[in-house]
Write a structure and sequence with these properties.
By secondary structure, this protein is of the alpha/beta class. About 45% of the residues lie in helices and about 15% in strands. The strands form 4 sheets. A 5-stranded parallel sheet has the order 7-6-5-11-12. The protein has a 4-stranded antiparallel sheet with strand order 1-2-4-3. A 3-stranded antiparallel sheet has the order 8-9-10.
Length: about 525
């Protein structure tokens, strides 16, 4: 975590922690800097803590107390005037609250989804779709100029298999029995593509080359992919076609450079990349003996292209099945003479779906496919966006379809949206009672413990946005929104919002408005609706 302004210090990043204690009794901010320095200096951490506290130049308007706890933790407590000032800042900032300009002027390219155009997006693709969309929003909220890119993998033998499958289905309409072994993809979409060709052209395409059927399949699949992404309000700025790397000679260029550096050699009819030179356990094939490149070679050429476009940062989002290839691709990029320090790779684990207590299978080859568009239809856009983001990308996700459909507080997305809708109802009631919430408000009346804890939770939002734009831990945003909703429900339970005291009512309604605003801003980043009624 970055240094917080209220600390008045800028500790080194390694091993230093600045965190919010789980128990309010331990203060609002805590740091272990004394323990880290004590280990480094081989001295008593409490003595270091005492010296640090004595030398700190703290703003009394922001920090009311500094305490040394346990073996040497330093705890800080907010001044009450500070939290009231921040509450006013939320109300005045509105939709902009939480945004920062730390990365203004910097350009980042985020490449994600990039599903093969051999079929529609299956439901499992949704995890990457939603993770990437949320990350892009977080980056923009931290000032980055974001380019959203989709690597259109329309080269290689997989495309030939698509064409073969479409052609065999097309022959069925002409009364010719298909060759089952050529149906590499058996989904209903193959039938739809073949039927469209038959409806438009009859038997005139019987002798058409395989390329024709491949092109028809590619066009259909990619259009359907884009339509599904649009359902989730996901749009890419660039669709980079893999086949341009071949047509523009970029693949051959990479091979030539690797050979010149003695990093590529031929063996058993294939071309190998000397990845052992970069610490790998064995060399990797980059061109098969069939002449078809493996994924590594075009990926190296593609990253070379992205680097040459001059971005300050490149982010790739991949499924866990790419783990083995990433080190080789980065090694290949470095061997071409390009830096890779600004390339970040986000890996997400696989997702499984449970429906009526049974696992839902997804296989384009078997034809038994649960598509992402089906998932959206079954549980709704908001549940899809939220459920795919609410767990760490590093962990396996089991998507419970029944829970996602449930209209109760057990449903995580329903829970946070209900808090927003409840506040909207309160505000409508206040307006119907002619309570002027635009008047000057006396926030010092907000003294109840649940009121103070809610305010403190709200003012964490800007810091969280800044943090997540660098750690990419998007699930923490959902965790935070849940915590805000919980803090609001406790406040609502403990404190009557509309009272006989007009000043207190105005203060509490203003706190509700601020809570609604923070929830809405968080919802905007995740991509879910800020519902006014439920």
């Amino acid at each position: 975590m970055e240094a917080l302004p209220i600390l008045g210090i800028n500790p080194p990043k390694h091993d230093i922690q600045l965190e919010r204690p789980k128990q309010p009794d331990h203060g609002d901010i805590s740091t272990n800097i004394s323990l880290v320095l004590a280990k480094q200096e081989k001295t008593n951490p409490r003595k270091i803590a005492e010296k640090l506290v004595e030398s700190m130049m703290l703003d009394d308007a922001m920090v009311s107390a500094v305490e040394i706890a346990g073996p040497g933790f330093i705890n800080f407590r907010y001044a009450t005037q500070y939290i009231y000032k921040e509450l006013l800042h939320i109300l005045s900032s509105g939709n902009e609250y939480g945004r920062n300009t730390v990365n203004r002027g910097k350009r980042v390219n985020v490449e994600w989804v990039s599903a093969n155009p051999t079929g529609p997006l299956h439901a499992g693709h949704g995890r990457q779709v939603c993770l990437g969309a949320t990350l892009c929003s977080l980056l923009e909220w931290s000032g980055w100029e974001v380019t959203r890119e989709y690597y259109f993998n329309n080269a290689g033998n997989q495309m030939n298999k698509l064409g073969l499958s479409v052609r065999e289905r097309y022959k069925e309409f002409l009364g010719v029995a298909n060759e089952t072994e050529k149906l590499h993809y058996a989904g209903e979409y193959i039938y739809d593509i073949a039927k469209q060709i038959y409806d438009d052209y009859g038997d005139s395409k019987f002798k058409a080359k395989l390329d024709y059927f491949t092109a028809q399949g590619e066009q259909y699949c990619f259009q359907r992919i884009k339509e599904t992404l649009s359902m989730l309000s996901v749009k890419h700025d660039i669709f980079f076609n893999e086949d341009t790397l071949y047509s523009d000679g970029k693949i051959d260029e990479v091979l030539t450079i690797l050979r010149e550096k003695n990093l590529a050699y031929e063996k058993d009819g294939a071309v190998w990349f000397r990845t052992t030179e970069f610490g790998a356990d064995k060399d990797r094939v980059i061109v098969k003996n069939s002449g078809e490149p493996t994924y590594r070679l075009p990926d190296i050429a593609y990253h070379k292209n992205k680097i040459e476009r001059g971005y300050d940062r490149l982010i790739d989002i991949f499924g866990a099945d790419h783990i083995a290839t990433i080190p080789d691709v980065l090694a290949g990029v470095r061997s071409l003479g390009y830096p890779t320090e600004h390339i970040d790779v986000v890996i997400h684990q696989m997702v499984s779906f449970v429906k009526d207590g049974e696992a839902v299978k997804m296989s384009k080859r078997s034809g038994n496919v649960y598509y992402l568009e089906d998932l959206i239809s079954d549980v709704g856009i908001d549940a899809v966006r939220y459920f795919f983001v609410m767990r760490s990308a590093n962990s396996h996700l089991e998507f419970d379809l029944a829970l996602a459909q449930e209209q109760s507080e057990k449903n995580p997305v329903y829970y946070v949206q209900y808090a927003h809708a409840r506040i909207a109802s309160l505000i409508r009631f206040a307006e119907s009672e002619n309570i002027d919430c635009r008047a000057q408000v006396n926030f010092t009346l907000l003294k109840d413990e649940s009121e103070v804890l809610l305010i403190k939770k709200l003012i964490e939002f800007p810091e969280l946005v800044l943090l997540l734009a660098s750690t990419y831990e998007t699930q923490q945003l959902c965790t935070y929104l849940n915590a805000v909703a919980t803090a609001f429900h406790k406040f609502y339970h403990d404190c009557r919002v509309v009272t006989d005291d007009l000043s207190l009512t105005q203060a509490r309604i203003s706190l509700c408005i601020a809570t609604k605003q923070v929830l809405a801003n968080g919802f905007a980043i995740v991509g879910i609706s800020a519902l006014e009624k439920m």
